[in-house]
SPOR domain-containing protein
Amino acid sequence: MYRRLSLAALLALTLANASAATLPSNLMLPDPDLATHGIVERWTLTIRLESDDLKAITPCRQVLADRGFAPVLSKMASSTRPQLHFKIEGSKEYTQATTEADDALAAVQQAGCKTSVNWAVVAKPVPR
């Protein structure tokens, strides 16, 4: 019973923190000025993962692939950072606001990959 209470408390804390965070679907809201002119928007969610360890990033690459993000692997090094560094980036376009984008980001974050995760939503006006 104690374990159930602690899991319930953890879930409540997680939900409270999640509601305070900006989610991709929060950014996928139509621009009222464009809508009045008959212009709809499509949104592209891009998720970028970076790590010095290719094995650590591979499970998250699979999560992106499974969700239709077509991830691309880049290998980088520079004079300021000579150690080999890996970046995986995948994008997916949405025609309307959807929590599917939130779910994809959550799946990457929950995959437990030892990476830095960055994401962005970009709106693209599409005339009707």
Observations:
- Confidence is low (pLDDT under 50) at residues 1-19.
